[in-house]
Each structure stands twice: as C-alpha cells, then as structure tokens.
Amino acid sequence: MSKNMSSIAVIGMQWGDEGKGKVIDLLSENAQHIARAQGGNNAGHTIVAEGKEFRFHLVPSGILYPHTKCYIGGGTVIDPASLLAEIEGLKKHGVPNVKRLYISPYAHIVFPYHKLIDQLSEKQKGGSAVGTTGKGIGPCYTDKVSRCGIRLADMLNPEIFRVKLQAAVLQKNRELEKLYNHPPLEWESIYKTYSDFALELASHVAPVEELLYQAAKRGEKILFEGAQGALLDITFGTYPFVTSSCTLSGGIAAGLGLGPTKIEHTIGVTKVYTTRVGNGPMPTELNGDELSRFPDHSASREVGTTTGRKRRIGWFDAFLLRHTLCLNGADSLALTKLDILDDLDEIKICTGYKKCKTFPATLEELQHAQPIYEVHPGWKKSTRDVKIYDDLPHNARAYIRRIEELCEVPVSLISVGPEREKTLWLDRFFNE
Ligand code: GDP
Ligand code: IMO
Ligand code: MG
Q: Is 2 part of a structural domain of the chain?
C-alpha cells in the first residue's frame, strides 16, 4: 500500500535510541520539511549514509538532503555551543547550505549553570540518580516551567538579555552555594560568551510556527522528528527515571505550535529487542548467561551516541509496546535492528507481566514486574543483505508477524543494518 500523506511523525516507542534518526533520514528523501519539537542535545541520532556516519543531537537528521528545510521548534531547549558545533560539523562534512536550518525564538536556552546543576544534583542523589546525560536539559526545562528561563528571543536583545541573565545568575549562585557548596559563577563572562552565540545563531532565527503552518496549508510534505522515547516521557514515562519533556506524538503539536490535526500518520519506531541507557526499571533486562549470548555492545551498536555509555539490553516487550502505542496512537511500526538477533538460538518476547492487567504506573510495581515470556526459535542466518520481506528467513518472518499480532498495528518498515539501503519497505510513505 502506498500512502500519499503529507505529514508523518516518527516517535520512539521504548526508552530512546530505537533508530529514529535512520527512519527520519530514509523518509527525508521525499520530504520538504523536517522539524524537531522537544528535547535538546540529550538526543543522539545516528545516520550512516554514503559510507559516512553522522551524529545529530539537535539539528533534524533530514538536513543531509539538500532539498529539505529543517526546523528547531519552540518546545526544544538549545545549548548554543553544542548546536553551533553541530552546524560547524555539517559544514565540514560538505552538507550544503546550512542556512536551511530555522530556529524558533521561543526555544529556551541551556546555560552553564543548568549543566552544572544537572551534574551536581545527580551526584548528590547518589544511588537514586536518574542517570541523565548531564547536558542541563532537566534544569533548563525546570526554569522554563518556573517562569524564570531565558529564551532565544531574549538572548537576541542585548539589553533584555543582560537584565534577565544577571537576575538568573544571582538566583543560581544562591542555589549553587547553598545546595551544592559550589563557588558562584560570574554573569559577565556568560553574558559575553552567549552574546557571541546569539550573533552566530541570529541568521537562523525564524517564525518556525508560521512557516510550518503555511507549509502544511500548501500540502507540502512534513516530517516530525521525535526525540527520546515514550517511556522517557515526563508524564507517562517511568517517572522519575525520565527526561523532562513530552516525548509522545502529542508533544509534537505542543512543541512546534502546530495544530494536532496537521499530523496525519505516526510511525512508532522500536527495536526488535529493548534497550535503555540510564537508570530505572526495565522488566525484560538481560543478565548473566542470556546477556553473554547477546552480541556485544560494539557489534550491536549499543553504545550511547551522546554519552558513550553502554546501553542496557532486554528482550522485546510487547506489553510495553502495547502501552506506548496507546500513548502515541501510532499507526504503524518501524522495526529496527533485526540483524542483531541473527545468531541467537532462541529469542524471547514478553507478552505481559504477571498479575498486571495494564502497564504499571508505579516504579515499585515495575521494579517487581515478572515478565511472561514466549520463546521463539532463532533463524541463525544473516538478514543483512536481504532486500525484500519475502526473502527473510522463515523464523524471522514468524517473529515479525508475532510482534505485529501482539501489538495490533501493521509493520511498515524493517531495518537490517545501520545503512540507508539496509531497509525493507512494507509500505511506502510520501510517494505520489
Ligand atoms: P535514535 O536515537 O533513535 O536515532 O537511535 P541511535 O542512533 O541513538 O541508536 C541506534 C543505533 O543503531 C545507531 O548506532 C544506528 O546506526 C544503529 N542502527 C539503526 N538501525 C539499525 C539496524 O537495523 N541494524 C543495526 N545493526 N544497527 C542499526
Ligand atoms: P534519543 O533521541 C536514550 C535518558 C537519559 C536518562 C534520562 C534523563 O537519542 O533517543 P536527560 O539528560 O534527558 O535529563 O536524561 O533520559 N535519555 C535518553 N536515552 N536516548 C535519548 O535520546 C535520550 N535522551 C535522554 O539517559 O536516563
Ligand atoms: Mg539516540
């Protein structure tokens, strides 16, 4: 079936790192606009194209295609040093006309005190630390919600910026000294550095909300690039082991200032197993023998793109997926990393947790959840060079069909390697 729709959201269905970047890159070939709505440089999206590897943190992954326009929405938080380094990196890699990147003035800015407080508070929490990326994302969103944050729009006006920054640093210094016994920061040097950043970013600042609205009205093809994953959502994730933004499809509209009816289709991206980086419950996590039989972290590319941490690995959790499909209203699934299971003798799927009718809302229940597994035979054959679904080994097809059956949504794409061409399409999007 070919779908001539004009807007698609690509959302992570687990705890992040599902392969959203690869899916966005694939769909960008036929899209005109690609937009990020939330999160910051805590995200890390990897793309392998034309023999090169690209890592994106805040810039939408679709920028590799020269015909696209890319947007960073008002719901994001921007660390200017990191964003400027990312833009510089793209130029160095020969990505043409990076002026195609438009940034909303409503986005909040991550300052050095946010990073510091993120790292110091994690240290203070000790054994109950969230395991954040340490990029200052949580403290920046905290200031936004407390109505004392500084937005890109504020930073562009030297006088307004000076007043706001001075007040913010005064307040943060009290926090740093009293709560963390940390020496105070000097607002003047932050002011100087960030004023330079503002000058560099100024040419990218644009009315993203209006631009996307007009593009949607013209029926142009828009892709929404989700960051993180459903179970890291600030409200419905495994709280407090979550990030600080709405990572669900609903967060796209809120973060871009776009009406929700402008999202026509939501693709939920999920690995055919589960990973998590950072702390918090993960009912199907592998340990001991089972983990040692799994491909190692570098072979499976399960080392975090942003922090270099090894990701925790678990069996596919269909109970979790049914829950995150509900939270996102996803219309189809993109299954990634099938090739990683190629050599396993047996593969398990979790179909539910003992004594749980619905996905548990509390940490305590999740920590003690007892997964109910069904065991599937492996296919013991490489899927990496398979080009069409029917050529997949029988057991791999049976495994995919079982996932589809348990999740009750169709699979639209299967990924069998990090590269663009290692993709099996079961459905076509954005095709005329
Ligand atoms: P994202 O945050 O959702 O964009 O995912 P990441 O890029 O952080 O992590 C996914 C990792 O798996 C990256 O290293 C990708 O290059 C890699 N990857 C994506 N799809 C596949 C696949 O089908 N097979 C293999 N082997 N690697 C993949
Ligand atoms: P992408 O977009 C995986 C996790 C962190 C930590 C928690 C809170 O690449 O899928 P934060 O720094 O956001 O306050 O950390 O969220 N986390 C991610 N895990 N992929 C991500 O993004 C993540 N972004 C944040 O590891 O557990
Ligand atoms: Mg990632």
A: no
